[in-house]
Amino acid sequence: SHQPARIVRRLVVVDADDGLNGVVNITISAGNTRNKFDISGANLMLLDQLDYEDTTSYELILDIKDSGSPPLESSGRIVIRVLPINEQAPLMNKSSDSLTLPEDTYAGTLVYKVQATDSDRGRDGEITFTMANNSSGSFILDPASGELFVATELDYDVAPNTMTITIKATDGGGLSDAKTSVLSLTIRLQDTNDNPPLFASSLYKMAVDENVPLGTIIGSVKAVDKDSGIFGQVYYRILGNAGQKLFDLDNTTGVIKTADSIDYENFKEYYLFVTAYDGGRPALTSDTLVKVQVLNKNDNDPVISPSDLVITISELTPSGATILTYLASDKDTNITGFYLVETTQNFEV
Hints:
Blueprint: E1 6-10, E2 24-30, E3 37-40, E4 43-46, E5 57-66, E6 73-81, E7 91-92, E8 96-102, E9 110-113, E10 116-117, E11 128-132, E12 139-141, E13 147-150, E14 162-170, E15 180-190, E16 198-199, E17 203-209, E18 217-220, E19 223-224, E20 234-238, E21 247-249, E22 255-258, E23 269-278, E24 285-295, E25 303-305, E26 327-329
Parallel strand pairs: 8-15, 17-24
Antiparallel strand pairs: 1-4, 2-5, 3-4, 5-6, 7-10, 9-13, 11-14, 12-13, 14-15, 16-19, 18-22, 20-23, 21-22, 23-24, 25-26
């Protein structure tokens, strides 16, 4: 570009005649597109600002006449090449933007395209895109197209779940004359239900005395879900089996209580199949096994048979002879022994 009314070249024309016959007049006869140039005396003048993006060169045809009568004339040609300068910075369609991505977006997915133009021509109008504030390495930017791709696995549950990256559009003006525009892009990750609740153990062992009161706490299970919000809320339930009616499981705390009378003599142990599920729709689940051992208590009287009997023996019965055999049973585990409550020295068990 040039400032208006500026001398761009002094023209030298030689006419060997003397006097008026040697006085030369120069005019532009062709090629003066949009009247950008004029001749003043022997000077080529620029009348208006040039624009490389509009016209890259001018070919001026000159008429040259002397002042004789009749005048003698000739012609000349001047080629003017317009040199470009880096006038315009890349123009983005916006200076800030935002988008929301599900955390399970696959690596390699195109998620955004930067729009930028540069009205300069040639190298000065070529745009290169770069990115800053991408310390996590979660995204990659194509420097030529401005396309933004997911580079690695995203995880809402690992901070940060909101990122702001800076994208720069730089033209080809070189180190000293390059011009830049900036876009601030905020990316928010959207939580998805991608983690099931996990129990701390695949087998829980608990013990309970028989005949304890209803509502007695015997233990608890615990599962943790790495998701956030409703997807990370954990609930519990006992799957249908023999122990389901005997035990109550709090569906939010995982605490297990007795719900009915428990008798060692009926079952010595129970296996509860417990499922943990989250708040997703559909829910993600995991299972564990709870072994409940019933501890025996001496809660049953032994039963003796016969319980009431009158027998007759001969006075000649020798010492140590068996005169009666009793049968006894006890619902508890073992009978510890027999003894006589009322006796004389004549009998022993």
